[in-house]
Amino acid sequence: MDRFDNVRVFAKVVESGSFAGAAAQLSISASMVSHHVKGLEERLGARLLNRTTRKISVTEVGRAYYERCTRVLADLEEADRVAGDMQTTPRGNLRVNATTYFGASCLGPVIADFITRFPDVSVELTLSGRVGDLVDEGFDVAVRLEPLPDSSLIARRLAVYRVVICGAPSYFEKRGMPCKPADLSDHNCLVFTGSSFYRRWHLIDGNTDLRFPPAGNVSSNHPSALLHAALAGHGLMYAPTYVVGEALQAGQLVSVLDDFVPPVTVRALYPHSRHLSTKVRAFVDFLAARFGPEPPCESLGTSSPSKSDPSLMSLLDGKD
């Protein structure tokens, strides 16, 4: 008896809630279903299901085993699918969801190249700061900076972008430069409301993980509005370099607390591999290849006080 057959049958019992339901889905007898489950329990030396004359329930061991074995089964199914889809051309409508600024500035050009490479695929890109339910809302892929909201989704890492806290030289001349995370409470911090990820500024001070709640006189759900305010010297901005990179290079903005601000990871999120279509796989693979070690929009470097305006260095030392 194939061990993976036992696992597949057990998974169907858990999903259907009964031996009869699993038997119907697998087109085998209920006694054969029982035989597979019994064989699996004997091999593991553990009870996976509690049985009564009326119903079955999954044991704690059975639940843990089910959650792990479904991933293995999905990987096997994907391996079979990859072999079968090798000669299949991606086609159809692909619905993609991404954060507003990142989608427009970094993802848009990549999508243009993707449809050139795969002309049988049409892409519908929806830009939104809200993280909804990918499957329920009908999206095939989401490109996000936030942590994985749904553990049933697969997350493929695409790129790592630097995040900076920055302000205009004129702001630092008036307010001074923060030297440690605690100093931020004395500064006007521009608040981005378009994404839950940026509503608390993430800093790491030694072994301490900090989530600083910014407070200031300007807030917006679009980073461009905050960028204008920062350039005008009205406050500090917390943003990835694909938003502020050009201003940093030009010396219009200066980054501070660089050693305390961790980078952000961009991921492609898509439904479990058992539902993965050729067009989705082609798109995610294309993104991974294009973003790679030097992702779009990340070639722009940060600007330190010494590079933009040597006079600002005195602010770091607490001098006039």
From TrEMBL:
The family database entries (CDD domains) matched by this protein are listed as: PBP2_CrgA_like
Q: Which PROSITE patterns match?
A: HTH_LYSR
Q: Name one GO molecular function term.
A: DNA-binding transcription factor activity
HTH lysR-type domain sequence ranges: 1-59
Under the heading Gene3D superfamilies, the entry gives:
3.40.190.290, Winged helix-like DNA-binding domain superfamily/Winged helix DNA-binding domain
Tell me which domain of life the UniProt entry assigns to the organism this sequence originates from.
Answer: Bacteria
Keywords on record: DNA-binding, Transcription, Transcription regulation
- For region Disordered, the annotated ranges are 296-320
Q: Where is the composition biased (Low complexity)?
A: 299-320
Is Transcription regulation set as a keyword in this record? Answer: yes
GO BP term (any one)? DNA-templated transcription
What role is this protein assigned?
A: NodD regulates the expression of the nodABCFE genes which encode other nodulation proteins. NodD is also a negative regulator of its own expression. Binds flavonoids as inducers.
Q: Which PANTHER family match?
A: HTH-TYPE TRANSCRIPTIONAL ACTIVATOR TTDR-RELATED (PTHR30537:SF5), HTH-TYPE TRANSCRIPTIONAL REGULATOR (PTHR30537)
What the record says about family reads: Belongs to the LysR transcriptional regulatory family.
Question: What's the protein called, per UniProt?
Answer: Transcriptional regulator, LysR family
